[in-house]
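The aim of this short unit is practical: by the end, you should be able to scan a pair of folded records and say something sensible about each. We start with the first protein, listed as its amino acid sequence and then its structure tokens.
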Amino acid sequence: MERLPLPSLIVVNATTMHHHLPEDPPHHLTPQAIQIFLDSIIVSSAPSYGGDSWPVRVYRMYYNARTSLEDMWQGNPVLTAVIFGLPLGFLSLICYSIWCSDILDADEEEPQQYSGTPVGYIKWVMGLTQ
């Protein structure tokens, strides 16, 4: 999918969602070339593009989203940045508060220090003595 320069000739089959494009550039199309192009479509010798299969539908959705976002950005970049940046900022704050909440609630006590013999330290670490 691409944007066609104006004027362009495109023939769309509405039942199968296939489209046909002439091989010649639009400014070189004569009435005879258009007649040959239409005749080749009727006899199914012209290449067809598009369709209604799942990969084409997915690509069409991607293309529509991309072109819509491009048009929004070209029309008003500040508003587009706010429309997408503000929800993403709130989502990042929500994710941060969910995944980093244990850091905020951590105890601020100093770890206990042991001063004694090395054997007593091993017993203290293993929890054998109090």
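Turning to the second protein, read its sequence before its tokens, just as you did above.
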Amino acid sequence: MSKLQIQTEAMQLFAQHGYEGTSMQFVAEAVGIKKQSIYTHYKNKDALFLGACEKAMEEELAEAKQVLAKIGKISDLQHYLHFMVMQYETSARAQFWARMSIYPPVHLQEQVMASVYIYLDALEQEVAHILAQNVAQLNPLVSVASATSAFLGVVDACLLELLYGGPQRVEKRLQASWEIYERGVLV
């Protein structure tokens, strides 16, 4: 059993049951190994969790950058929001990352949030770059920095609705938030 397989199963379990609801025994059973075998790769549950967070952050960020790199105009930023929803619906890794970035285990909050801030700062840079390239489309009263922060606020709203309300409810929030964002930000 590889470290990656253990990590992948653990991500799925952490996404479904949270940190507290996922035991090393639970992970071992899901992978089909003895609990002691996990300790060959991970010192303890915290190390497994933090390794999963790091991997999820790296992969989620790489995919976000890929999607954002294809966006040419501000109105296309809405595609990123739909991508985010689709990822959450289809990927245990995305569900894990979303849940843990909002609800990290209290005793690991500092370490988890360090990864979350790396992710958010990189996402902010990507969005700011798109907005700066299309500054002529921006309302002259709105700075690139403000438009970027507002977009990340829409991302946050969609993420919270995914966690609390699920994919069906998020579509309503996404459409309304995007409509107001466009009206306030674009010329």
